[in-house]
Structures are given as C-alpha cells and as structure tokens.
Design brief:
about 110 residues, alpha+beta, Arc Repressor Mutant, subunit A, three-stranded antiparallel beta sheet, 4 helices, 3 strands, about 15% strand
Length: about 110
C-alpha cells in the first residue's frame, strides 16, 4: 500500500496550490479535487494538509482570500498575490533543478 504523505513530499502541497491558484481563484475543497485531477491521482491531499498550507500562504502574503455566498453557504476563495506569483516562479525553478538532479541520479549506474 502506498504511503499517503511520504517524507519527500515536503513543499509539494505549497507548489501545487500556488500553481493551481495561478490559473484562477478556488476554494479549499475545490483545490483538494483539483490536485488529485491535475496529478492524475498520483497525489491526493486531504483538507487537513491543504488548509494549513493555505492559511500559512495567506499569512505570509502569498495569497488573499474573500468570502462568497454560494448556494446558501459561504465559501472562502483564495487567489494569488504578486508575492505568490513570485514564490511560484522560485518554487518552479527549484523543483525543475531538483527533479533533473534526481532523474540523473536514478539513471546513473551504481558501479560508476
């Protein structure tokens, strides 16, 4: 059985949230579903992971939120700020560098 949150996943929720919110504003549960869909179900993060990251990103100024009434209930929608877009750019760069390094290491013969 696959581990739901392996240790190497640190930082991935933030990257995915910023990437999805770069397209348009979304509310929490919508983000949970969108991450699953965007990763072809390879990554499934629950609300217990998503909401603390959203709140942290909002506190540090990377996101802003607004409440909207939808079908008789209130939802909190999140969107990126300029700081959030800048953070996404940095994380994308870092992720590409790390991904490339890991790919090289996995392809390298252990008898080199």
């Amino acid at each position: 059985m696959a581990q739901s949150n392996p240790p190497f996943m640190s930082g991935v929720p933030e990257l995915l949230l910023l990437r999805l919110l770069n397209d348009h504003e979304m509310y929490g549960y919508e983000l949970v579903r969108s991450i699953k869909k965007a990763t072809n179900e390879a990554i499934s993060l629950g609300e217990g992971v998503i909401y603390p990251v959203l709140h942290s990103l909002e506190r540090n100024g990377s996101l802003k939120s607004k409440r909207k009434a939808v079908a008789g209930r209130t939802r909190v929608y999140y969107s990126l700020t300029k700081k959030g877009r800048d953070r996404l750019g940095k994380l994308r760069h870092d992720w590409s560098r790390i991904q490339g390094g890991v790919a090289i290491a996995l392809e390298t013969s252990s008898h080199a």
